[in-house]
Amino acid sequence: MIKGRKSSVALVIKFIGVLSLFFLVVSYTVDLAFRYPSAPGGDLYNHYLFIVDLQKYGLSHFFTSYPRLFHLIVLLGMKVTDLPALKVMLYLVPIVLLGVALAAAWVAYLLAGEWAALLAFLILLFVSGQPLQTLYDGGFPNVIAAGIWLPLWVGSTSLYLSHRNWKWLGASLLFALLTLATHHFSLAYLLVLFLLLVLRYGWRQWYYWLALILIGGALIWTPLGQPFKAILNGVASFGGAFPWIHLVGKLANSDAIWRYADYAVGIGSLQVYLGLAGLIVLAIWMSSRKKDSVLPYLVFCWIVLLLIGSRIEALGFPVRVARDAGVPLAISAAVFIMVLWRMCKSLAARVGIVALCIALTLPQTIGRFYRLLHYEPTMQYTTADQEAVDRTGDAPTVVLNQLLPTTIRSSITTVNPMIHTAVGQENLRTDLADAEYVFFDIPNGDPDDYSRWLESNGFQLLVIYGDPLKTVHLFQRK
What we know:
Blueprint: H1 3-31, H2 44-57, H3 69-81, H4 85-112, H5 114-127, H6 132-136, H7 140-163, H8 166-180, H9 184-201, H10 206-221, H11 226-236, H12 260-266, H13 269-288, H14 294-309, H15 319-324, H16 326-343, H17 347-374, H18 383-392, E1 397-401, H19 408-412, E2 418-420, H20 429-433, E3 437-441, H21 447-456, E4 459-466, E5 471-477
Parallel strand pairs: 1-2, 1-3
Antiparallel strand pairs: 3-5, 4-5
Helix pairs in contact: 1-4, 1-5, 2-3, 4-5, 4-7, 4-16, 5-16, 7-8, 7-9, 7-14, 9-14, 13-14, 13-16, 14-16
């Protein structure tokens, strides 16, 4: 590496280091200063149950129905920090987002150099709507596998095939195993990309086909393939609707598939428009480069695969595949910007490139920072709830709540849990006979009605807890 290149690489590394530190400081002092007891996302309850399952049965349940690497990480975090699962997941949010940006930056660096790496890093950490939205839905395993392990597998696999360095083969196998142990959809992406690699670069090599057969056999005949087989069964069940692909975007559930305009809104205008333009650059590179054609080919196939997958009805909820396209599109957009920058030598042209990027990113960047600083947990388990839980301790407690999902409270908040997602006063009399405490937040309805009803059943108001999201009334038996 020449001296000037070394200095610019060092400068970009410093930029990324400073920006990473800034992001973490803001996340842990401003964002998390609200002290939410839980991370965002309705899927959080399911993750919590998987963690409890691992606590009960150990690694024997690691691959039953869903890969458990994320849940094992949380479990280890609980042991190290002595924090509850919800808090560990909350503190993982900034780390996961930063990990996605760093993984994409490395792939962009391999493709187009250090400044492309910086651009991809900036796009994913400060601009992109994805994977932030997926994470805010509670999709921790999805984001870790599709946004961290898969890009690292793409980069390390391309380095091995280009340079035949065995350390990169080891890295490729490691990230493939991590993907397998984290999320089934990302495993499907990886296997299709591996098949495309075999068809282009290794169709004459027997050991490529042997590897593919062994992996496929493991997924069919061993517990490792349970999540992957669920995808295949879902696709097969739509056989009568072949070829399953909806080009217009009409499904029974309109939220399950995006209209074309939704890609720019859900992911980001810069990523979608310039990322799609970057496909042209990648296509030229993968056809013109010889030794270094693997990575452009992989990233090109990665984007096209996810865009096609985002239109397949048989996947049930293809919008999740569309969201996963945010990472490779950010890489492609960064590559396109750098190619355009190098082609345009005049000051006016480069000012125009900067103006275009600002116009495409400014509104979404503002919106992203707002979401980072003002997220509302889908689960609606807030500081007021936690204060009520701390006050009741281990005493039998009834929680009256009309918000979903609330079932997580039954596992976390009470020793003798009794949970009700819709308040039915007559049905609660038996449960109340065993309860020492009752607390509720009623978003629709008059809390005085419930207060009077509880007082008529032998309870008195003990304290009211409040935070910006809700007010919780805590009653104790008289």
